[in-house]
Amino acid sequence: MHISEAxxxxxSVSEFxxxxxxxxREIQILLCxxxxxxxxxxxxxxxxxxxxxxxxxxxxxxxYILLANFSFLEICYVSSDxxxxxxxxxxxxxxxxxxxxxxPFYFFFSMCAAEGYFLSAMSFDRFLAICRPLHxxxxxxxxxxxxxxxxxxxxxxxxxxxxxxxxxRVPFCGPNVIDHFFCDLGPLLALSCAPVPKTTxxxxxxxxxxxxxxxxYILGSYTLVxxxxxxxxxxxxxxxxxxxxxxxxxVVSLFYGSVMVMYVSPGSRSxxxxxxxxxxxxxxxTPFFNPLIxxxxxxxxxxxxxxxxxxxxxxxxxxx
Length: 320
Description:
By secondary structure, the protein is mainly α.
């Protein structure tokens, strides 16, 4: 076990060792290839949604503007930890600097909070569109949509600012080995060389408030939406509304189902294997599945994606 002797403002540890996935070298290479493929497909899928919304005038509506921002968030979200994880898998030293640990920690959890806010904003948009259709154009204006986008981005980074500051003051004296593939909250708190009840309580409170307030708001919104949809006579309008909301709620279920397991009690010391699996699910699987869920169940999005692909093929043929 490697213990650093260099000092910093928080203690004597100047770097951490990320164990990642301790297994045979052949399996590590296989994991690296598999995770790299998922990462690239995630980037392509979310970038395709952004391009589709950008290129199609039909999709220049609040719902798709929010979706495009959500896709851009997913790209930032998955890029905040996966590249380091991939480098760590094939690395022999598996070390990460103190700053290199805390900065990605802040950005990752800020975007995690922003994802909850964006999902809430998208549920608010669907609630207005289905439950208040006559008032929708006057309420959900482009100005309000822009404010929601700014609030979601700024709110995510501001919400995690206090926990991040408190984490930067946690004393790390050694050991410095983290049995995880990135600097997660629970494993970091477990390495503290002194009790930090204030930090643990603050992190637990902030994470619980963000998770439960946004989740309960989303759940309430879609409950009202479902009631409104069931009152609509059977037909294409009802099917389209139900399909759109089902896509949104499926994404919500994937994200919150895994996040609630991990961060409602950040000081809990569950099995490291379980921690890694759940973290891997919401930091890689949910961003990977989201473009598939939104595009495959949305006719307008599928049409826009087809136009983008056709335009790309025409451009290639012209160059030839």
